[in-house]
Design brief:
Structural class: alpha/beta
Shape: globular
Number of helices: 5
CATH architecture: 3-Layer(aba) Sandwich
CATH topology: Rossmann fold
Largest sheet: 7 strands, parallel
CATH class: Alpha Beta
Radius of gyration: 15 Å
């Protein structure tokens, strides 16, 4: 078994990242799964469910601090990134997932702005497969898991496209 990931906050982990969320839950001492509808997956993987709709800018956030935050937010939720990273312990790690949407990976890696000085950020960029097909849920989760397993790597591109 790999080392304990400590206290982990996952935002946007109930759909395509469900596999990564389950993997994290097996390796963390506490997992808070924040989403609009977290109950089903949280119950299945043994995580705490926290209802969060990032369209509500005044929505409360779960109590931290956290050692790791994994987040996949739509464009309209990017304002939440600084609030999530503020919940991390000094030396904590933020793993941000971005879909490629035909953008330059170098631009994607910087679109969240700089992380707080006390936080390490990793960026996972979801690209297409070499044949032009979209990544499936397993490929996406495996790419995120590989990012978590290699904290020294600042950017990971998943796919070949």
């Amino acid at each position: 078994m790999e080392r304990d990931l400590g206290h982990v906050l996952i935002v946007g982990g109930t759909g395509m990242l469900a596999g990564a969320s389950a993997w994290i839950a097996e390796r963390a001492s506490r997992v808070v799964l924040a989403a609009r509808h977290p109950d089903r997956l949280a119950g299945r993987i043994g995580a705490e469910a926290f209802v969060l709709n990032w369209a509500e800018r005044n929505a409360p956030l779960p109590a931290g601090p956290f050692d790791l935050a994994l987040s996949w937010l739509h464009e309209d939720g990017l304002w939440l990134v600084p609030r999530l990273e503020a919940l991390l312990r000094p030396g904590g790690r933020s793993v941000r997932v971005h879909p490629s949407a035909a953008r330059d990976p170098a631009e994607l890696a910087t679109r969240d702005g700089p992380p707080p000085a006390r936080v390490r950020r990793q960026v996972v960029i979801l690209w297409r497969n070499a044949d032009g097909s979209w990544l499936d849920h397993d490929q996406i989760s495996e790419g995120v898991i590989q990012a978590i397993r290699t904290p020294e790597r600042a950017t990971r591109v998943v796919g070949d496209g």
